[in-house]
Amino acid sequence: MAFVVTAKWTAREGQQDVVAGALAKLAGPSQAEEGVLFYQLHRDPENPLVFFIYEQYRTKADYEAHGASEHFQQFGVGEAFPALETRERGFYETWDA
Questions:
Q1: Spatial separation of the C-alpha atoms in residues 57 and 49, rounded to whole Å
Q2: Is pLDDT of 67 > 90?
Q3: Domain residues for 47?
Q4: Alpha-carbon torsion 58, 64, 67, 71, what sign?
Q5: How many structural domains comprise the chain?
Q6: Domain contains 27
Q7: What are the distances in angstroms from CA 5 to CA 14, 19, 30?
Q8: pLDDT score, position 11
Q9: Can you tell me the mean pLDDT for 13-37?
């Protein structure tokens, strides 16, 4: 079973390039984390202010380690968050039915 996070980030008007740049810098180090199974960035083709991130971790603790990582603190919290209008997250576990 994997711990899944979905995140929808909406940039403030005129700040979409800041958010896109921060996510681009965040993606590689995040994908290289030991506990990350999948980390994929998406962007709304009809609204360039909206970004969607789909993440899978081995465990919730691996997700928490990602949030505490230097790269997330620098590029996510430090660069992207101040440029966001809204930030929504969902938490799930994979399920073998």
A1: 26
A2: yes
A3: 1-54
A4: negative
A5: 1
A6: yes
A7: 27, 19, 13
A8: 98
A9: 98
